[in-house]
Design brief:
alpha/beta; Nitrilase/N-carbamoyl-D-aminoacid amidohydrolase; 6-stranded mixed β-sheet; 4-stranded mixed β-sheet
């Protein structure tokens, strides 16, 4: 059995501030014309917000780019995904919350042209980013294929995010990034580490130069880099992920050895976690198992 997911990661500079959506529709259309089998397209963090860097953008600039989730930007992106029949993750955007809050929010749109998921960055890069932190982890089912989860840039530095997404059944973690600093080398290590310790695919797509440092990559559930951008230049990474690789690695172990999700038995005592004022309960340890079939069907 195979569950293929053809993906395209677009390492590109941010769109211009004056008209961030101008030309984007045509760009995505040209991408699908070049790679017609693609089902999932992912862009970098804040790609459509007209900012040249998340660290040096002023709060006024970010607020000027902010829209509510049901604003005109989201409606146009949903229409684009529907016209092309793809899952579209246009990076993250500045979201204006119902109380005027400013969030850094990853969006996903379905091949039917509907909003499919939104995730607010839980760990803004402080003290540089003014966003209000999100308060929940988000996963999304791609019917007939599997489940993806979302993190944004600095979230990757906190292992709780990837672990929680994997526990919720994510088989792929999508991580849009706008890294303009010298720590991209460490982020690439973290992408591999998060893939290894959770046995998931990780898609880390960074902004291209001259704004960002590039080096986007796709990592498999055993931590191997499947494809990567060699530098900061604009690039499109294409790959076909087989989500059954996640099933295989979890069943037989990383390198045929390590089966972390089967570490505990129901007879093991809970392990107290004073750091979180909580604990690991062995009965709740294993990840969720997403259905490969569309909702409302029997498979």
């Amino acid at each position: 059995m195979s569950r293929p997911l053809p993906v395209a990661l677009v390492q590109a500079p941010p769109r211009p501030a004056a008209a961030p959506l101008s030309g984007f529709v045509e760009e995505v259309g040209e991408l699908i014309a070049r790679f017609p089998q693609t089902r999932l397209v992912v862009y970098p963090e804040l790609h459509l917000c007209g900012v040249t860097g998340s660290a040096d953008a002023s709060e006024d600039q970010l607020r000027a780019a902010a829209e509510p989730l049901d604003g005109p930007r989201a409606r146009q992106l949903a229409e684009l995904a529907g016209d092309l029949g793809i899952w579209l993750v246009p990076g993250s955007v500045c979201e204006r919350g119902p109380g005027g809050e400013l969030f850094n929010t990853a969006l996903a749109f379905s091949p039917e042209g509907r909003p499919a998921a939104s995730y607010r960055k839980i760990f803004p890069w402080r003290p540089h980013e003014p966003y209000v932190p999100g308060d929940r982890f988000v996963v999304l089912d791609l019917p007939g294929t599997g489940r993806v989860g979302f993190s944004i840039c600095y979230d990757a530095w906190f292992p709780e995010v990837a672990r929680h997404l994997a526990w919720m059944g994510a088989e792929v973690i999508i991580n849009p990034v706008m890294t303009t600093t010298a720590d991209r080398a460490q982020e690439r290590v973290l992408a591999r580490a998060n893939a290894i310790v959770n046995q998931v695919f990780v898609l880390s797509v960074n902004t291209a130069g001259p704004t960002g440092t590039g080096r986007s990559l796709v990592v498999d559930p055993e931590g191997r880099v499947r494809t990567e951008a060699p530098d900061q230049g604009p690039a499109v990474l294409t790959d076909v992920l087989d989500l059954d690789d996640v099933t295989r690695v979890r069943e037989f172990g990383t390198a045929g050895l390590n089966r972390m999700w089967d570490q505990f038995t129901d007879a093991d005592a809970p392990l107290e976690l004073p750091l979180y004022d909580g604990r690991i309960d062995p009965r709740r340890w294993r990840p969720a198992v997403p259905s490969p079939f569309p909702p409302g069907t029997d498979g």
